[in-house]
Amino acid sequence: MPTERLSMRKIREVLRLRWERGVSLRDIARACSMGCTSVHDTLERAKKAGLCWPLDSGLDDVGLERLLYPSGKENAAKSRSLPDWPSIHRELKRKGVTLALLWQEYKAAHPEGYQYTQFCAHYRSWAGRIEPVMRQKHKAGEKLFVDTRVGLWR
Fold first, then answer.
1. What is the pLDDT of residue 151?
2. Would you tell me how many other CB atoms lie within 10 Å of the CB of residue 62?
3. Sign of CA dihedral 30, 36, 42, 43
4. Non-local CB neighbours of 8 within 8 Å, separated by 6+ positions
5. First to last CA, the chain
6. Between the CA of residue 84 and those of 11, 37, 62, 106, what are the distances in Å?
7. How much is the pTM?
8. pLDDT of residue 3
9. Which of 5, 87, 100, 142 has the least C-beta neighbours within 10 A?
10. For every residue of the chain, which 3-state class applies, written as one string?
11. Residue in 7, 152, 148 with CA at minimum distance from that of residue 68
């Protein structure tokens, strides 16, 4: 779950307190009125962006935000490949085939792909949109089917 975007003023204060003063994460969180996880995430993002203290004087708030929160276009290249849900659905009908087995095959082909929980959630979401169909083959007049839910007899 991505953390919320903080104001650039708070981000600069987090970086200053940590890198200039050496303040602990818990004390930074208390001083900036934010959670420890948000402080940790901010510092990790800054580290990945290659930032150091003091920040470059030419780095404005827009530039800092671009470094810490890359746009979706840049992340699109890193997006996970979607499995072929219809073929997975067909495979699940075979004896001995489980969603866990199909996920393992998917991960072998796509190491950057979804983890098991998300794989299952996406599959269930996809499968929920399928129209339920029940085909019955029988000779005419051989069987009688009665739907008792209809309530024809009152």
1. 57
2. 9
3. positive
4. 61, 64, 65
5. 54
6. 41, 36, 39, 9
7. 0.45
8. 44
9. 142
10. CCCCCCCHHHHHHHHHHHHCCCCCHHHHHHHHCCCHHHHHHHHHHHHHCCCCCCCCCCCCHHHHHHHHCCCHHHHHCCCCCCCCHHHHHHHHCCCCCCHHHHHHHHHHHCCCCCCHHHHHHHHHHHHCCCCCCCCCCCCCCCCCCCCCCCCCCC
11. 7
Q: Mean pLDDT in the chain?
A: 84
Q: Express each pLDDT in 75-128 by its tens digit.
A: 544 567 889 999 999 999 999 999 999 999 999 999 889 999 999 999 999 998
Distances (CA, A) of 1 to 4, 37, 145: 9, 12, 50
pLDDT of residue 77: 43
Q: How far apart are CA 80 and CA 10, in angstroms?
A: 32
Per-residue DSSP letter, 93: T
Residue type, 132: P
pLDDT for residue 12 is more than 50: yes
Q: Where are the domains of the chain?
A: 8-76, 85-127
